[in-house]
Design a protein that fits this description.
The protein has one domain. 60% of the residues lie in helices and 0% in strands. The two termini are 18 Å apart. By secondary structure, the protein is mainly alpha-helical.
Length: 73
Amino acid sequence: MVRLVIFLVFFTALVMAAGSVLRLLGLFRESTAPTSAARPTTETPMPSILRNVAYALLLALMIGITTGWLGGL
């Protein structure tokens, strides 16, 4: 069971990494919704590179905790 969970975590990491690379290259768009200029918001948008780095660090943290590399016994 643990092997299956680890496999799914790594598979998810690969899919997310591929999606980030495709988005970085501009080959993949997140949605076809109207641009942010058409929707007024009160939030300051986070730079995309910072958001991608935060996602990568969060994923590394989750994988480390799940596999026992961080905080494991």
